[in-house]
Please model this.
Amino acid sequence: MPLIKAKTLTVAISDAEIRRHAGGEVRQLRDSRYREIRFRYSTTDRSRGSWHIVVDQVWRKAGNFPAISTKTLITTLPAILARRVVDRSACSIITSWSRVGELLDWWLDRVSRDRNLSAKRKASAKSALTCHLLPRLGDLSLGDLGKVELDRRLMWPLQERYSLSFVRSVYGVLAGAFRQAMRLDMLPSNPMAGLKFSDFVRTRIKPKPARLRGDDLPVLLDELTNQFERAPIGAMLALMMLCHGTRLGETRLARWRNVNLEAGRWFIPAGDTKTKAEHTLPLTTQACALLRRYQRLQAAQGYTGPLLFPGSHGALLSPSKANTLFTDLAKGEWSSHDLRKVARTAWTDLGVDYMVGELLLNHAMKDLDATYIHTTAEGLKRQALEAWHKHLDGQGFAAIHTETLPGQKMGPVADEATNGAGCSTPQHPSQGRMQNEPAPVAPLTKSGPAAWGQFGQWPSG
Model:
């Protein structure tokens, strides 16, 4: 009869003893000196394993080997047992970190390799960690992190130099690092669990006031009219945001394949949005005419690539260059986000339902709301944008999405290109198109030239 090997072996556990039995079939080790200690080998890699503390037959994981050595476990065992006596539900976790900086280094590496975070979010977190959190808190013992030290080292110095909204974002990165470490059982306790931003800063953070108002629209649209031929990329980027209330990040990534002028729809993939939820916007008659004119301008200037807003060497327009375009266009008087704000305010003034406005902005909604509202929202979104673009026409928008050819009266650009599907109502063939007007440009698919001219303008042919 074959000998059945024991799954549990009682030994005086040490790092050497763990390695000695790694090549065998023993499932776990029990310490002969400290009856509470158990070690279990990993099922996938027997050079690794996990520590457990057993009190009154209740198991609690204490950490992983080799990150936590036998010596470290035995040294911290009295503190773990004391914690378990006071609170039977307390954890037995031991951390290999002794300083805040070690945790923050781990969090920086984790954030930088997180595929679910956008490049902007990664850059923001990296800046907070490397420029503020690590220099100010890196050498602080984990056991010493509390209100007093956090206020003295970080919160109060930051609020002297930076806006409260920025200070709150830095605080959020720190709190997020500790929360995730706790979720992964890498800390015995969270020293920030009972802390709130308002513990340090009592002043209420007010939203930034809008720097564009409805009264500014005529001047703004007149400036965009003048810029449309000279610097079409910047002007068109601003117009698309103003007309649809989209974010700068999701607008600059727009591709012609996602703009359906026949059906009158603009599709924004989930990967391009802040909420990571795909977004569909109706294209009105005016928007389709504007896009047709812009498309023809691209082709006339030698660009036949797939992007609405190409950057240098035919790549996507980068965030920094997009911001530069707005700096040149607005001369520092307003930002790209102000276009989104003025659109949202105008929708309210025009009587657009609050939820429809939120859907147009692609704000995150509860799953239940999204399920029940989606079926009827598309028609309401179109009605809202049609009312908004009609209002913009009265402020000067009509001068941009229409153009005059020699010897002709001003009229809409290629309205019939929408084929009456979404962009306009069915028309007589003689309506909506100027005499001798060239046929609409087909969707662009070929790659464009690599060289740029003056920034914001198309390359010369």
